[in-house]
Amino acid sequence: MAGIDPAISADHIIRRFGATVAVDDVSLAVAPGEIYGFLGPNGAGKSTLTRVLCTLITPSEGHARVAGYDVATEAEEVRLRVGVALQEAALDDQQTGSEMLALQGRFYGLSAAATRSRVAELTDLIDIGDALARRIGTYSGGMKRRLDLALALVHDPAVLFLDEPTTGLDPVSRAKVWQEVRRLNTDLGMTVFLTTQYLEEADELADRVGIINKGVLVAEGTPTELKRAIGTDVIIVTLGGSVDRARTALGRLGTVQRIETSGETLMLSVSDGPSTISPVAVTLADVPGADVRELSLRRPSLDDVFLSVTGEHISDDHAPGGAVDTSRDDSTRERA
Ligand SMILES: Nc1ncnc2c1ncn2[C@@H]1O[C@H](COP(=O)(O)OP(=O)(O)O)[C@@H](O)[C@H]1O
Ligand SMILES: [Mg+2]
């Protein structure tokens, strides 16, 4: 990457709202053509940094450059080169998709003909097709997200910002958005800055992931690097009691690199899971009152990374061994 200017660079960005420090001294760089996943729980500061980078709000301190221009002093230049699909899109239910796309084209100074040919390209790329002639009020949540994505792309931006593009979507719509983001990246070489609270989304899509918690960038790397950094395998032990005693006993096993405790659950970072699981079982059998409820082995996930850097799980949906429930948040987060 030496010699190539980053598509996005943030240099010690701080953004305050009154006494709240929403973004706390974040520095990062995204290379042209990269998909950067900005991962963190609700309230972590993802939207705030995204808004700073898109010139929608100014930083309290620090500097950022996007597509070669400074977000504070050259905001107009930045705006022409970025596409933005925010968490709460402003779609007008009374208009059709085509009308909104035409409006967006005019906004960016494209001729009607240029907008039409651009929209034709986009409808190929973004699976929205026939629905464009219908009023937006009739769209499903997934269709609205895809229209919003198309709107962000009308002026062929170099850098695309997507703020939680799949929050509240059902698994099928989510997979479609993932496919489209990947296509934009591989076919058009577009740089993508994507925020998410879904670990599997960051894992699936991002070339590199930055983990943000309480405004602070707490870890950064490729998904593989991040997972490798916390140990090769994870053994999960859930107990009915004697957690502290079990922890002490397991800590004496030479192959156990680290133990994290979350309630009654212990997560053991080990270099070789399969050969460590029986010594763990034997050790636990000797701990009075430990009462093993679960003993399992898995590859580390980004949630393990999040837990190891913050001491918390990213959300309750991602408890160890638990399935990710994607159906639950629809009602509260779906756009009106
Ligand atoms: N306009 C605002 N006024 C006051 N506080 C805000 C505003 N926007 C965000 N915040 C606060 O900043 C923090 C980060 O918010 P946000 O960037 O929206 O997080 P995320 O997008 O990761 O959920 C939160 O504590 C939030 O309440
Ligand atoms: Mg947000």
Brief summary:
This is Daunorubicin ABC transporter ATP-binding protein. This protein is an alpha/beta fold and 336 residues long.
What does this protein structure show overall?
This protein has 336 residues and is α/β, with parallel strands linked by helices. The protein folds into 2 domains: 8-227, P-loop containing nucleotide triphosphate hydrolases (Rossmann fold, 3-Layer(aba) Sandwich); 230-299, YebC, transcriptional regulation domain (Alpha-Beta Plaits, 2-Layer Sandwich). The protein has 12 helices and 14 strands. The strands form 3 sheets. Strands 6-7-8-3-9-10 form a 6-stranded mixed beta sheet, with helices on both faces. Helix 3 (97-107) packs across helix 4. The radius of gyration is 23 Å and the shape is elongated. The structure holds adenosine-5'-diphosphate (ADP) and magnesium ion.
For the structure shown, list the relevant keywords.
binds magnesium ion; 336 residues; binds adenosine-5'-diphosphate; Alpha-Beta Plaits; alpha/beta; Rossmann fold
